[in-house]
Design a protein that fits this description.
The chain has about 210 residues and is of the alpha/beta class. The chain has a single domain, classed as 3-Layer(aba) Sandwich (Rossmann fold), CATH 3.40.50. The chain is about 55% helix and about 10% strand. Helix 5 packs antiparallel against helix 6 and helix 8 packs across helix 9. The chain starts with 5 loop residues before the first strand and ends with a helix. The mean pLDDT is about 95. The protein binds thymidine-5'-diphosphate. Thymidine-5'-diphosphate (TYD) binds next to helix 5.
């Protein structure tokens, strides 16, 4: 592979996107590429604060939460230890489990989507994903998986919110259709079939 790329993997909670991000990273590594797999919320200071908020340990206003996710994302991009830009400069293909489309989908449940998009404009200017992959799974299936896997659901893990989040993803894809490369993958199939379809989208991008 000659280009090093930045790929964002998106989906609702319980969609299996983290598994798919790891499978894509492994497949690329096996093919001999330098891959950096990362995620949001990050493991940095702001990301840790966000994890406490998601677990319900701290309660703050949804607009402040949206602001913290933006701050976490800027740190994710710009921090000089293992930030995404640094990794890209070092020649890595970077796969991020969630990026700004997560903010568009989740925070717009509570506020105007255009505001969330405008707030994240600086991130888009710094680094726009070469590809956003959305792993699409019906919210009821996601909710069932969450209930099977977690003792206490996190902040946004209710059927009602996941339904709104999924709809918001599609609204955001439509709004930004001229600016963003998006591929929607049916995530309600066997894990390997989903992974193959993601690989196919990725290979198409490489051949451009
Ligand atoms: P998730 O990928 O589900 O993490 P984990 O699998 O470790 O629980 O993401 C955590 C939550 O953060 C998820 O509910 C979506 C939410 N989120 C936002 O609300 N806004 C954002 O900008 C991002 C990146 C995530």
């Amino acid at each position: 592979m000659s280009k090093n790329l930045f790929i964002a993997i998106e989906g609702t909670d319980g969609s299996g996107k983290s598994t798919q991000a790891a499978m894509l990273a492994q497949r690329l590594t096996e093919e001999g590429h330098k891959v950096h797999l990362t995620f949001e919320p990050t493991n940095g200071h702001i990301g840790k604060l966000l994890r406490s908020i998601l677990k319900g340990e701290i309660s703050i206003d949804q607009k402040a939460i949206a602001g913290l996710f933006l701050a976490d994302r800027l740190d994710h991009l710009l921090n000089t230890q293992d930030g995404i830009l640094k990794k890209m400069e070092e020649g890595y293909t970077v796969i991020s489990d969630r990026y700004y489309f997560s903010s568009y989908a989740y925070h717009s449940v509570y506020m105007d989507m255009d505001w969330v998009i405008a707030c994240n404009e600086m991130c888009a200017q710094i680094l726009r994903p070469h590809l956003n992959i959305f792993v699409d799974v019906p919210p009821e299936v996601c909710m069932q998986r969450i209930n099977d896997n977690r003792e206490t659901p996190e902040l946004y893990e209710t059927s009602d919110i996941l339904r709104k989040v999924r709809a918001n993803y599609f609204t955001a894809f439509e709004k930004l259709t001229n600016r963003e490369e998006v591929r929607i993958i049916d995530g309600n199939k066997a894990i390997d079939a989903v992974s193959d379809n993601i690989w196919h989208s990725f290979s198409e991008l490489l051949s451009l």
